[in-house]
Amino acid sequence: MKHPADLPDVVPIFPLPGALLLPRSRLPLHIFEPRYLAMLDDALKTPERMIAMIQPNRVPNGCDDALYSIGCAGRITQFSETEDGRYMITLSGLSRYRVVEELEGFTPYRRANVSWSGFERDLGPTDVDVHFQRGPFLDLLGRYFHARELQTDWESLKEADDELLINSLSMLLGFEPEDKQALLEAPSLTTRRETLVTLIEFALRGGDDEELVQ
């Protein structure tokens, strides 16, 4: 699927706080709730094999089932079934979308009419961040991992291309759902990297305006 016209107007939506899927990235999921097992079963019967990830929008005094307006759809590219009927799947990110309206229906899971307009670049080639300075970025990331007592394969990070590095970190690091949404909605890889740096620096400050934790 290379063009928005190739994508369906109606998609099954999977609301999951903190779960970020980005175009050309992969998201592993463990499916066990009956409604999402039904969603998976139905999705596998379609040519697109698509599930659309989206985050709940927990606004104060808002509707309990409110959603953010923008999510990202992925194609099921791997799945395996456990002995107790659960599934481990991998979604490969295709394109972001905007919810037009949620649809009523007889499925146990939620569905929405969506628009792919404005996200044509998601279906294109790998994005490039021409202003990316890998050395200073990895130095900052090293301080963040040290402060959080996290481990990683630094050689893989050094060798990963810009988009894979920035998108993978955006998906994996433990930011709040609203921060994940900001990373999702970033209009370019450069903007996403700038947002990611801001979030890391803010975390290193301990969430205030003090100097960075050393």
TrEMBL record:
UniProt xrefs under Pfam families? LON_substr_bdg
Checking SUPFAM superfamilies in the record gives: PUA domain-like (SSF88697)
Kindly report, in one word, the top-level EC class recorded for this enzyme. hydrolase
GO biological process per UniProt: proteolysis
- PROSITE patterns to which the protein is assigned, alphabetical: LON_N
Q: Which SMART domains would you find in this protein's record?
A: LON (SM00464)
Sections of the chain in a coiled coil: none
| Signal sequence coordinates | none
Tagged with keyword Hydrolase: yes
Stored InterPro entries:
Lon_prtase_N, Lon_prtase_N_sf, PUA-like_sf
Lon N-terminal domain: residues covered: 11-204
| One MF term in the entry's GO annotations | serine-type endopeptidase activity
EC number(s) reported in the record: 3.4.21.53
Keywords of the record: Hydrolase, Protease
Source domain of life? Bacteria
Q: What is this protein called?
A: Lon protease 2
Supply the source organism's classification.
Answer: Bacteria, Pseudomonadati, Pseudomonadota, Alphaproteobacteria, Rhodobacterales
What is the gene name?
Answer: lon2
